[in-house]
Amino acid sequence: MNRPHLNTATATPRTFEVDSTLPGVSFRGAVVSEFTKLLALRTSWWLSIITIGLGGIIAGAVAVSYQYFMAENPYFTGEAMQLATQGQTGSYFAMILLGALGVIAITTEYSTGAIRSSLTAVPQRVLLLSAKALALAGWTAVVTAVLILISHVLTSLIAQPLAPADILDAEIAGMYVATWTTVLLTALLGFGLGVLLRSSAGGIVVLAVIMFVLQIVLSILYGVTDGAAWVETLLRVEYMNLVDNFINPEAGALSPAPPLEPWQAGIGLLMWAAVPLALGALRFTRRDA
């Protein structure tokens, strides 16, 4: 008796579909659920602990070096704002570490298949993606605030003229808020890359290229082309140049490109985060999970 032969090699795989008209979990419930996932993810804790610890170590090292320089140069008059800015150097490492967390926060669900369970609980994909982004932003906001506070305390206790109470100074507080904002936007940039690429390695590599490699390449091109206008334009909108101009305009002035106003740099950083988020959301809503 002949049995029907199934050609499994050419069989069309079943796609995962969820009725987006179903109510599912509320937005508040989705945010709580996504935040709980971050709490349960060991990578979240490791990256956050490393971020805070490394930031504290760097702040202490900067303060000790600053104090030593002051002792060796008694006629040098330091400024509290300058010391406070240097004490936050660890925030640059926080950007790449928490940016990587932003990538992992979404790509781990694809690698484990948990995204299907998430979509079953929250069928409306835009709502699910918004909940994930909000939970990540909340986590990043807390970790970055702790980093900034610890860095300020260590720097102010070790070196002068910065004092612990200077955290209430309008100029210094404004710089801290700008630093906090850049780390938060970088985490969302990483999240957008993760949604768009659906690959942890790919998202983290692209994030590293945006933050480090691109600046080096453009600086080389600027020298090779004798300061061509198009390279200068790219340098002005390059991610880390925008960060420097947004946090510390004096640091931004060191770039070969003309400096930007902080509000202009802030808009540029928003665009850097918004583009991959928008493209990722478009792919997330239109392509199968």
TrEMBL record:
Record has Protein transport as a keyword: no
Pfam family, one: ABC2_membrane_2
Gene Ontology molecular-function annotations: ABC-type transporter activity
Transmembrane segments: 45-69, 89-112, 133-154, 174-197, 204-224, 263-282
Keywords: Membrane, Transmembrane, Transmembrane helix
One GO CC term on file: plasma membrane
PANTHER family from the UniProt entry: INTEGRAL MEMBRANE PROTEIN-RELATED, MEMBRANE PROTEIN
Protein name: ABC transporter permease
Organism: Nesterenkonia natronophila
Phylogenetic placement of the source organism: Bacteria, Bacillati, Actinomycetota, Actinomycetes, Micrococcales
